[in-house]
Each structure stands twice: as C-alpha cells, then as structure tokens.
Amino acid sequence: MKTLRIVLMVSALVVLLAAAASTPTGYAHAAPAQRAPYMAGEALIGAAHGARDTVSARAELAALAARYRYLDDVSVTVGSAPEGKEAVAYYTSGRIVIDSAHTVSVETILAHEVWHIIDWRDNGRLDWGEYLPPAETDMYLKR
Ligand SMILES: [Zn+2]
Q1: How many whole angstroms separate alpha carbon 99 and alpha carbon 105?
Q2: Ligand 1 midpoint to CA 70 (Å)
Q3: How many whole angstroms from 90 Cα to the centroid of ligand 1?
C-alpha cells in the first residue's frame, strides 16, 4: 500500500514536470532562443549591406563629381531617409542620404539626387522639380 502511494506520487510528479517542461519551454525558451540569433543575423546582414552601399555610393558620387559641376563637396551617407523615401538630397548643404532599406540601385538613386543639388546650385532655384536628370545635362559637364 505504501509502495503504491509512492509510485502514484512519483508518476503524478512526472506528469506535472512533463507538463511544466513542455508548455513553457516550448514557448518561452525555444522561441526566443531561436529568434535571437536570427535577429542578430539580420542586423549583421543589414550592417554589411549598408557598408557595401556606402562604398559603392561614394565611388559613384566621385564619378559623377568628376563629370559634372557643383558636386565637388557633396557627401553621401547610407542611413534613414524621411517618409519612407529611397533617398533624400539636402540640396542647400549638399548632403545626400540613401535609406538603408532602399530598393532601387545606389547608381540610379545618385543619378537622380545629384541633379537636385545641381538644380539648386546652378541659380539658387529648383527649376526641374522631379524631372531628373534634366534634358540639358551636357550644359553641366566639367570642361
Ligand atoms: Zn527627387
């Protein structure tokens, strides 16, 4: 009789432990343990992607500055553009920020954004709006 009671208590304990181990472990531990390295991996991929973008953006901007006037002191960084835009050109200060979540190529973005700066620096007005590059790009070639 005493042995049976111990067996019952032990088996009840095993059931309780199994229930305690399966439910909370399956959620609280397994999920974050798998998610944390995944998130870290995403962040690392994002950082590497941003660094590669910065290198190619600076090279592309240097090529445009060698070709066109008004771009010698312009800078480009990869960061956060407002309102979910691909990029933004601060045309008065000559800064271009490409959003790290851009979906268009760095080359395509810069081929647009530098013309906002050229547009402004040419005569202190924005004449072309978003019709960029303008038809008369040859007028702005360095000679
Ligand atoms: Zn634009």
Answers
A1: 11
A2: 17
A3: 11
